[in-house]
Every structure is written in C-alpha cells, then in structure tokens.
Design goal:
The complex is a heterodimer of chains A (about 160) and B (about 400). With about 160 residues, chain A is of the alpha/beta class. Chain A is about 30% helix and about 30% strand. The chains are: A alpha/beta (about 160), B alpha+beta (about 400).
Chain lengths: ~160, ~400
C-alpha cells in the first residue's frame, strides 16, 4: 500500500478545500468525493500535478435525489483513481472535461444519454448509443425506469 | 487528391452474420477522409440495467454474455470486483486457471484478428491458415471447459472446473504446434509485399495521440506505449508470472499486427509457465448470496485492451449499479483520429486495426449531398470499387 497511501495523503492535502472524502480500500485503488464547485480545477491539477492522464471511463449512478458522476482516472504505476461528484437532480449539470481530455467526450455523451446529466461546454451531446428517435427525458439508468417500460419504448424504435 | 467539395458516406451499421454493428459517417474529399462521426449502440441490450435487476450469481452468466470473444475477460473482471466487495479471495490454483484460460482466450482472439486483418487487405491465404490453426486453441478451450465460446469457467470465489494432468499434456502439445504457426505468421507479415503495402504507414496513430485519446491495448502498445493491465495492475496469477509487455513504435496497422503476433508468443509462454507452477489445492471458496455495501473498480487486460468494471453494492443480493466499459469504446476516439486523412480504400483495415467487431462494413449507403441522391453498395461492391 506504500505508494497508494502516499498518493492518498497527497490528494487529501492538495484538495482539502473541495474534498468530501478520500479512501484507498486496497492497493492501486483510490476513491475520492469532491464538491462540484472546484471540479474543473481539480481535474486540471490531477492531470498536470498528479499525472492522472488516462481516463478509463465515466460512470453515472442514480442516488435518488442526486446523480453521482464518477470519473475513473489512471496513471503510471496503475493507480486507478475514482473521483465522484454528486449533482442534485434539479440542477443536473457539470462542466465538461473534454477540453482537458478529448477521450472524455464519448463517455460524457453516454452519461448524458443514460442519466440526463448535461456537461456544460461539451459541443456534442448528441445520442451515441440509444436508437434514433428515443424520447427526450427518458433516461434508462434512472431507478424509476423499469426494464419492461424501456423494452416497450425500444420495440417501437 | 482533393476535389474541394466533400461527400458524406455512412458506413454501417447492419450485418446479418457478424456481431457488434457500428455506424461511421465519413465525410470524404475525393477519396480522403476529412471527418468521421461514430454512432454506436446497434446491439445495445441494456445489460447494465439488467445487471441491477438480477442476483449476483445470475449476473455472472449475464457478464459472460457481454462479449462472445472475450467472455472470460468479462467474468474475470466481474468476479474479481464482487470478490473484493465480499472480502474473499479465489484460491491460488483458481487464479492460475483463470490466467491460463485468459491467455488461451487471447490466443484465439488475436489469431482470429490476424485472419480478419489478412482478409481485409486481400490476403485470404493467411486468413485461411490462421483460422485453421486457431481451431487448435478452440479445441483446447472446449476440452477444458466443455464450450468453445462461453467457457463459464469463472464463478464468484474461484473457478468451476479444474484442469487435469492429462489435459495439461494436451495443452502443451497443442501450444507447441501453435507456436510454430505464430512464428510463421510473424515471418509472413514482415516479408510478404502484398501485406506490407496495405499495412505499413497505414492508419498512423502517433504516441502522443494514442495517450491523449486514452487508447488501450495493442492499439496503444503499437504506438510505443508500454501499458498493460496484467503488468501494471496485476490480477489473477499475473503478479507471479514473468512476461514481456510487447511494444512497437511503428504506430501503424503493421505495428498492430506485429504486436498481436508477438503477444501470442508471450501468451503461449505464460500458459506454459502457469501449467508448470500451478499450485495444488481447491479451486473455489463458497461465498454468501448477499454482498455488503461498498464499491469496487476492477480492471483486466482483455485481448483488445483495458477492460474496466465498476460495481456498487447495497447489502442485498443484487447490485445497486454495475458499469462496464469495454476496450473497443475506449479506442473509438483514437480510431476516429486515425481515420482522418486516410484513403477510403484503407477504411476497412484501419477500422479492423483496433480489433472492433466487424459487422459495420456489410454495406455502405452513399449520399451525394449536392445531387440529393443515394445508393447502396454491398460489401463485395465496396471491395471491388475500393481495391487498389
């Protein structure tokens, strides 16, 4: 756990203002929760100061009245850092990181499509995966959507 | 040669025989690609949602069916993640068996790819040889697991079948045969002019571009980046097995072919080593049905590159959220970058270069924006009209 816990402590110190929690459940895995305000700045520093230059993917999770967006970064030495930002459902938006990491664009589109999060500044949030003509505001990975309902919508497309 | 005006060419999505259709809208000037817009999801089955609705043990079988080529990569990633949440570890022998199956899977996947690549550049002799030889590996997988494709070897807490001593002998002798064949492919792809002319310098992806676009797997390694989850973030028995991470700095389709061929030789050595050192003992531990609340990120090196799963549990028998990102999606941004500036005729082999599933190229609809007419080419017509 040597390097992993060292990096965890460095992260804790560097982002103490925006940090909600940080933990390293095992070697090469760090989970960090931050506030939305400092998001873009945090990502910039993670890339430039900490070397997390690889974005593995972005996960969206429906938490009930919030949607959590989790960015899975990796760096050399294979520490996989998951950075979570919880967004209230009434203002479901966060600034894009596609300007900092071009690969983010495709993952942002996916989270947008499946959970309705808008990524401000991403010039292209057009549908990527769901069929043509999929109704607006039907986000399949929201908990209130049943599989049966989605199947019926899909069958008409 | 540019004509100063562009034509949009939709590429894909449907093919009745192959898997994973994709659609790429190409904007071409003359026969040079100037812009690419991908549209995926034609075989989207809602697996992430379905995983939330089923128990962990049912999800194991669903995870196996995410992919028909790298099913073992998905179940390895899945079981590791769930084992981490449960706080259990597969027994050492199970970890070796997972590794052996993973490398046999890489062998059949990479040799399948070499065949597809050969076919796409019009070198069908090599295609026939690789797919014939690949049968040796498929037979091994069938002999071990009972299945050629969905081996169902993994379970939460270990593996479902052991590898007996007599199967070990069969694996060794088949690998001896296969190793000679792979050496032959390496010789052919480096010396056969008809292959070199279609692959050397085609589909360039520079090192910095590959890093910037977060490419993964052989695509990344053929652009000179030493990155492999097996070595960097060891899982199963990889931490105990010496092997070389193959890199190549050619940055083109030829480089991607060389990397995959050399990786097959490494895979053969990994399997041999694992068979020699495989510890005795049990192959699985029993695990409870309910998984305590928590979250885990699980990564494996699938044949096409980094595969990542994210699991969030809530203390019940079903996951709260399960996220899968397969390597093909990770390589789409880099692929689009690579395609810009390419010749129309090179699209099939460049697309094949990242080893996506191949169905996207069954037919093309051509739309002449200026004249407002469109027509369809079959795969055969496409080949006839684009062969150089």
């Amino acid at each position: 756990m040597g390097q992993t816990s060292e990096v965890t402590e460095e992260l804790r110190a560097a982002f103490k203002d925006s940090m909600i929690e940080v933990k390293a459940p095992r070697e090469r895995r760090i989970f960090m929760r931050i506030k939305k305000v400092a998001f873009q700045e945090t990502v910039k520093r993670l890339i430039n100061d900490f070397g997390f230059r690889h974005l593995s993917t972005i996960t969206g999770v429906d938490l009930g009245d919030q949607v959590e967006v989790i960015y899975h970064f990796a760096r050399e030495g294979a520490i996989e850092l998951s950075v979570g930002v919880a967004l209230p459902k009434n203002t479901l938006s966060i600034s894009t990181v596609s300007g900092l990491m071009p690969a983010a664009s495709v993952y942002e589109r996916e989270v947008h499509e499946f959970l309705g999060v808008s990524f401000e500044g991403n010039p292209n949030l057009s549908p990527l995966v769901l069929p043509e003509g999929w109704p607006k505001n039907v986000y399949p990975l929201r908990k209130e959507r049943t599989f049966e309902e989605l199947r019926q919508i899909g069958a008409t497309k | 040669m540019g004509y100063g005006s562009t034509v949009k060419v939709p590429f894909g999505p449907q093919h009745p025989a192959l898997k994973e259709p994709e659609n790429f809208l190409f904007e071409v000037d003359g026969d040079i690609v100037v812009n690419v817009t991908p549209r995926i999801g034609y075989v989207h089955r809602g697996i992430e949602k379905a995983l939330e609705l089923r128990s962990y043990i049912q999800d194991l079988y669903l995870a196996e069916r995410i992919c028909g080529i790298c099913s073992h990569a998905h179940t390895t990633c899945y079981t590791q993640g769930i084992e981490e949440l449960l706080g259990v570890e597969a027994p050492p022998r199970a970890k070796y068996i997972r590794t052996i199956i993973a490398e046999l899977e890489r062998l059949h996947s990479h040799s399948l790819w070499v065949g597809v690549a050969a076919h796409e550049v019009g070198f069908d002799t090599l295609f026939m040889y690789t797919w014939r030889d690949r049968e040796a590996v498929m037979e091994l997988l069938e002999a071990i697991s009972g299945n050629r494709v969905h081996y169902a070897m993994n379970t939460i807490g270990g593996v479902r079948r052991d590898i007996s001593a007599e199967k070990t002998d069969k694996i060794r002798s088949s690998l001896d045969f296969f190793e000679k064949r792979v050496q032959e492919y390496l010789h052919v792809i480096r010396t056969e002019e008809s292959f070199l002319k279609r692959t050397a310098g085609v589909g360039l992806l520079k090192k910095q571009e590959a890093l910037d676009f977060c490419a993964v797997g052989p695509t990344l390694r053929a652009s000179g980046v030493k990155n492999d989850v097996r070595a960097d973030d060891p899982y199963a028995a990889y931490g105990e097995i010496p092997f070389e991470v193959i890199v190549d700095d050619e940055c083109d389709v030829l480089g991607r072919t060389v990397v995959r061929c050399k990786e097959m030789l490494e895979s053969i050595n990994i399997v041999r080593y694992a068979l020699d050192k495989m510890p005795d003992g049990s192959t699985r531990v029993r695990v409870p049905m309910a998984v305590p609340a928590g979250e885990a990120v699980s990564r494996v090196e699938a044949p096409r590159g980094e595969l990542i799963h994210y699991a969030k549990s809530n203390g019940t028998t079903k996951p709260e959220r399960y996220k899968v990102r397969s390597p093909t999606l990770a390589n789409i941004p880099a692929l689009c970058k690579t395609l810009v500036g390419a010749h129309l005729a090179d699209i099939p082999i460049i697309l094949a270069g990242i080893d996506p599933c191949f169905s996207c190229m069954d037919r093309m609809v051509f739309v002449d924006v200026a004249k407002d007419r469109n027509w369809v080419w079959t795969m055969q017509q496409l080949k006839r009209n684009t062969s150089r």
